[in-house]
Prior knowledge:
This protein has eleven helices and ten strands. By secondary structure, the chain is α/β, with parallel strands linked by helices.
Amino acid sequence: xxxxxxxxFTVTFPQEYIAHVEINRPQKLNAFxxxxxxxxxxxxxxxxxxPSVRVIIxxxxxxxxxxxxxxxxxxxxxxxxxxxxxxxRKAAHLRRHISSFQACISAIEHCEKPVIAAMHGFALxxxxxxxxxxxxxxxxxxxxFAVKEVDIGLAADIxxxxxxxxxxxxxxxxKDVALSARLFGADEALRVGFxxxxxxxxxxxxxxxxxxxxxxxxxxxxxxxxxxxILNWSRDRPVEDGLRYTSVWNSAALQxxxxxxALLSGIQKRKATFEKL
Length: 277
């Protein structure tokens, strides 16, 4: 990784090819303000092409994954009342600001490397935006989720309303939690498919995330990164378009030496190792 050092996140490399990013504002339950989401974007755009990273784990320090938007900070910034100026011009300013915020969270989805969101404690509002942009979601048994935005007078606008229905496949359930802003727990999140695994506590969850990341990192990075790209591209398009995109992508990717390496390792019953990408 480059020398970039974020102020509100810690980055460690607990195993070869694995980066562990932790949201690090525990005194505020990891609530986000503008500097943090700008840092998040820079961080994931830095890790994305890094050949020494194959999988990223995203978790939170302290008692929460994140309590979402720092409403106090937003009340004097993005959400501050503004009674002056032409409404169209104010709308243009807000639209640009929202689009920038969206792009920061979308940096997780656009990252070349698979991202595992490992959640515990509170995972509210923006936490759901972040989690739905990740590739895999797991949580500790104590996690409490909520699509919280209607409680502060707005519709969620950073990704949840677009991504969550595709993640869980139940439009009715999404409307239930998004319209009510009610809390739901780990068991419900598992039942609807929002998370794929629930662990006893945070410590066990992080270990589980490391094992999952280690397994993914042991595979061909050409294959893993291609799989993420094709799945994300195909999600919002007809099957026929997805098939065509896959054929174009793999017409290049299948020329990798990794295919032969993987096949021979299976025949010879040995563990395959792959070059950096």
